[in-house]
## 1
Amino acid sequence: MTLGLGPAEWQIVGLSLQIAVWAIMASLPLAVLVALALARGQFWGREVLNIAVHLPLVLPPVVTGYLLLILFGAQGPLGQFFETVFGLTFAFRWTGAALACGIMAFPLMVRAIRLALEAVDPKLEEAAATLGASRVRIFATVTLPLMLPGILAGTILGFAKALGEFGATITFVSNIPGQTQTIPTAIYSLLQVPGQEGAALRLILISIALSAGALIASEWMARGMAKRVRGT
Amino acid sequence: MSVHLSFRHRFPDMELALSCTIPNGVTAFFGPSGAGKTSVLRVIAGLETPDEGVIEIGTHRVLDTDAKINVPTAARRIGYVFQEPRLFPHLSVAANLRYGQARSTTRALPLGFDDLVTLLGLDALLDRRPATLSGGEGQRVALGRALLSSPDLLLMDEPLSALDARRKAELLPYFERLRDQLGLPILYVSHDVAEVTRLADTIVLMEKGQMRNIGPAAEIIAGGETGSQISRDLAGAILNVTIAGHDPVDGLTEARIGRQPIWLPGQVGVAGNQLRVRLDARDVMLMREAPQGISALNVLPVTVVSIGAGPGSGALVRLDHQGQILVARVTKRSVRALALEPGMPLHAIVKSMSVTPERVGTG
């Protein structure tokens, strides 16, 4: 079954999923750490971190994309660092698209995870400490399991955001078919050419289906998990 | 094993200062709310750090602010039962119970997992989730969980205060059994006279962050020494009764403990209601023979549990009536004249009119 999609369109969908999955997998551990630091940490620069994390949410995406280009481009300081140390190139590659999507989805994930963390009753962590559990064990056996529904909701929300990211991606890594072309940038290209409305429509329907599916899955899983955590 | 405490801590609204050595057995911290009783337990557990002080649990120095020693909670080897069960909602009852077992043990618990589960009546609950437990069941699991972590010292912060009278009555026997079987020092915070009277070996009276008195329970309850307000508060008992009916002609309420009627003045509650009736120790009289032709309506058969004599002229006699504790304050001369001794059957006489409305609470 091909749903009326050609190989080029399947490739676009596949690449979009690949980019979004990598973007979320790479940023999730960092998002948990940042949420922890913001919710529980008492350190100098906490407000600065808070603003830096949330900036992509309010900046015009084209600005975020341009900043990425300057920092992570072939000539950018971080771009050269990753190139020489890890052999990882971002500029005009799918990895760059994943980086852009990850950064755009990051504030949404941090917010959801932070809310989940703040909902964990510190009294339970106190109780765990009186039972002899170290801080690491308390986090792994009490805090983290109780946060899981929130982490999951944040992850799926971030994933949907990454799938739909347009402005920062097209600014940073352009719109190269087979390389960096995702569903939104492909739709954009198709709409620029007369007579391609049919192809665009197919991608639009796919986009709606993926987004709605992600939202439904997130609701369903979060509800099931919250139920398991509450034990009812 | 004893616990040595000496610390002070300034809160915004109160200064907490305490210096005492707590012997083995159950020590109750008794005082009005806001006296700082809970803060004492939190400081001992390491959940709060006082401004200055020293705390030793046995030979284990867990806090010494001068020497910069502050052992973290997890390494203090204490068990803590909070006001609410604080069970981990994502774990089964069995997993909750075993949570603290990972702690390496220096001190073997005289009871294993299975023994404790039986003692606390938890067999049927092991596969359940905390959300499905009643308050009393949850608190029993919390107690078992704390004990299975092999603590050197058990801290209990009003563990019964969130429960209704019936659940309390259900749980107290478990506490008594543990007290008698574990040989573990227990610090018990409460403002409930009945609990303190029933459980404590030693009582620490607290008021406004300060220790007012410490001593054997019988002496403190007898209150001969200080005669302060809080020790007078303590000299009494609370009876849990069920309303059986009303006598509109005489304006009385008939309550019962088991089949034993207790007449209360006024028309209180509705039949079937649970009530808590506080009896002051000085309102209870004792007789060896069943009295005849007496104006007092309530004559309860009781057994002497213990006799505590303070340095003054009074003595406090703890009495058992169907498992509930009554306290009678009598003179030392009467103790001699009646030749009172533990185990002796007596009749306790309570004037109905001494049970004023503020002494009757809902169960």
Note: The first helix of chain A runs from residue 7 to 40.
## 2
Amino acid sequence: MEEILEVEDLKVYFRTIYGDAKSLDGVSLKVYEGEILGIAGESGCGKSTLVEGVLKLVKPPGYIHSGRVIYNGKNLLELDGDEFRKIRWKEISYIPQGSMNSLNPVIKIEEQMTDGIISHTDMTYQEAKEIALEALSSVGLPPDVVQMFPHELSGGMRQRVCIAMSICLKPKIVFADEPVTALDVVMQKLNLQTIGELKEKFGITVAMVAHDMSWHAEVSDRICVMYAAKIVEIGSTIDIFTNPLHPYTAGLLEAIPSLEKRFAKSIPGIAPSPLNWPNGCRFHPRCSKKMDICEEIDPPLKEVERNRIVACHLYGGG
Amino acid sequence: MENLLELKNIVKTFTRAAFDFTREKVVYALNDVSFDMDVEPKILALVGESGSGKTTICKLILGLEEPTSGEIRYKGIPVSDWIKKNQKEYRKEVQIIFQDPFETFNPFYRVDRILWTVIEKFNLAKNDNEARSKIEESLEAVGLRPKEILGRYPHQLSGGERQRFMLARVYILRPKLLVADEPVSMLDASLRAVFLDHLKDFKKTGISCLYITHDLNTAYYISDYIMIIYAGKILERGSIEGVIKNPLHPYTRMLISSIPVPDPTKRWTDRVRIDITQLQRVSGRETIKGCVFYNRCDYAMDTCKGSFPPMKMVEGHEVSCFLY
């Protein structure tokens, strides 16, 4: 597998009157070609900020403090607006969180889709429309949809329109931020399968942000678990589920209610604030396996096995 | 035995937009729904997808909407009478928790105000000291530390804390019936279990709960009984173990097979069947004579088109399907 995108020590801060909130505090990550990378973690851990940081979509008061995003040998964060525009959508596209509500309610689907295509290429309207139709059919929507307004479609179908929009220009990577949240189970399944097919049909690499571990179990190849603005563990889906190394990952897995085991255990305590992360390991106030060292030294990410990276003092002193 | 809550042949229709002359104007949100809840505290789950009429049921029970036909009785007295004659008493006994913990608070007031208002309106305490100790007791009952919570503004609390704060409000009132409309869908997985455990504790103190959700996992986690609703009709109901372990209706089976199993070795192998007629879903509802699930059903037969299948007792629970 070849690396397609690399994030190096990315830091995204938000200016507040109490000082900078470190919403993303040094994240390094590699995305391999043709995989589905799952990004998991509870709300407020920086999942969405990571995606926004990579795509340079952080809005004030947020700003990218430092770090590098390498794509095709170039550091994306050094490109200026126009240069980045050529890559965004065409090579790296994005399905924003709650995107089913981001469609303009008074414009037909056809115009919304062609608008994006035309502004990023020099196609004619007719060509753009054909591309839009092709993209819609590849996510399983009938062509009549283009003549409709967003309110005529159900939430799940609107979400698939957004998936179709993101793949119109055959990008290399799609960042999907909570693509199935707020849909009912049947629609969730359908949309997850649609995302899984992007990889098989078009060879598109997908980075999917989702808080629910069971969705990752269904489609992701690798999972990257985040906690308090940092990555705590990366590993293949099978490894993460069968043998979670970090105590936080183990806690996340135990918190999933399912029809097979009729109990679920929650992780005690609440997530810390980005204005004031705890010293040492950020998970130590909630950790059941806390040691003295955890309060003082923040464990670095360390490769403990092949393709298995974890940041915890339990696995070598760091 | 007397029922706490009784819904009998409830039909609720909504009129469509006035300018849309081309189509029939009436949409059936609920079509002949009947169920009841025991006096004995139980948790009843009402499961269905978006647009199936779950929230309409919740509004009818609270008396926020009147049914088009049919009757809702609380302790044997119609809800409309409760609202007209004894609204305060009814509000004290029947409480609700809404889905979105971010929009139920007034951002200008400290959170304490919610609990103080409740105590004031329902004369729950004789003096300030008693009120304060009641507030602290209720917060502790839902696992919040009064010192950390009181005096704060809503934006300073997390989603899980806000939702539990709403539970504290319910706890102060000690209602007989709690209607919870998707209370955990905005919460993280790790916080859900905490919230649901409190609902279980409430049951022990004598609070029945109608738990409205689209998530079978959490329904299975806390409920005693379950009802599956689709397009305004109840398709299957019975004890939670019976329905989940032995689903009879094709729709229930579809719901259960759509739940992602948290095990990467057991991925889905089948595809979801998409109903293209769902495109016209909004207008389709009023014309259906037969089974509401006909268009999406794998086992659809000719008889299904003719009339809606009646509820039948099969293998320990009730199901409305011509297969049985």
Note: The mean pLDDT of chain A is 87.
## 3
Amino acid sequence: MNLFFRNKRVTGLLTIIPENERNFIDEMSNFDVPISRSLKLKEVMGYDKHRMVEPGVCASDLAVLGLQSLISRNLLHSQDIDAIIVVTQSPDYLMPSTSHVIQGRLKLKQDMICMDINQGCAGFVMGLIQSYMLLDQPAIQKVVLINVDILSSKVSIQDRNSYPLIGDGASITIVERSNSTEEFSIYANVKMDGARYDSLIIPAGGFKQPSSFKTAILHEVEEGNFRALDHLHMDGSAVFNFVQTEVPKMIDDLLSFSGMKQEEIDVFLFHQPNRFMLEKLADKIGVPYKKMPMNVVEKYGNSSGVTIPIAITLNYKKKLCLENMIACCAGFGVGLTWASMIMPLGYLKFCESIEYPNQLDN
Amino acid sequence: MNDIVLILNEICPELDFSLSEDFINDGMLDSFDMITLVSTLDKKYSISIDGMDIIPENFKNEATIIALLRKNGVQL
């Protein structure tokens, strides 16, 4: 599905990353494979460090810290927020929505829209699409898009498929109608395939299969990994194949829809599952590696919908405050969902990262 | 010993690949080893094996790996 928007902009971006850092080297003994094999995998996939929240920290904690930081520095005025969109797979509660919790904790005005979207690795693009749709309403001038996931507690420490790469984090993206006289267009492409819903899934904990003593028991599964039904399950081969098959096609379709040539794109901001997968995508699409950041997983881990904002604040924080770039964003993952967007990005009021400190009182 | 077996031995030194005709079903190569192998082959032969070709069928034994390399223009 092709989508088209006009004259909406990202005007600020903040990422919130837990201070608590883990190292793959220290975790290798959790996996039932020779150390030499793990070391080779570290090199190929980019496994190195990842950030995880401490037990008890929830999604709204990261978001509230980030919003308080912006509000206290006058980078965001709380009365200007007309909508909060939270994109997460790790909400504070099954109900109410985490966006309501954040609104309440910050004592924001009632004359606003709070909504949660259950999306993962495509969540940044999906959140922007929803933000742009809301901004078509005259009453809505400013949307706060929050991507947050703290899935580390839902990953088995003995699952080599997911534990070494998981990361927690949050981002706050301010999305507004452009005041500039310059007209510009935003192009997006979205596809979904619920027939493959179980390729990435946490089987227990919802209403279909509530968590219980039984769902917490670890079982040996494929390739010597151990997981419980309460844990995230990723069919690594199926997901890898899905990405390599669908994403290059999606980028071709998006470029055709926009009428732009690949050379006109300044930066390809793709979700960051691991370095190997990104290199293969870049090779297939024909994008030079220097135009596609791939350094998020090795520093912070894969924080699903937050990896694109982290790629931005990690690699372009100074540049994007001073100039404009044409960015092609792409996210792909749970659902399955694959979504992409070509948009101007730049002249940001702020583009920075802060840490969520250890042992902070909530 | 040929190049492919040497590379496999480097990835999994504890295994003898010359004894198997089906590395996957014999449990010698898992999906992560396949990725490590692809990365090594890409570098050694200056190629980029298509992500859609990273499927177990192409890594079953020495012959299927050689066929994959030939598909990528490697002369063996």
Note: The interface with chain A takes residues 11-14, 30-33, 35-36, 38-39, 48, 50-52, 54-56 of chain B (CB under 8 Å).
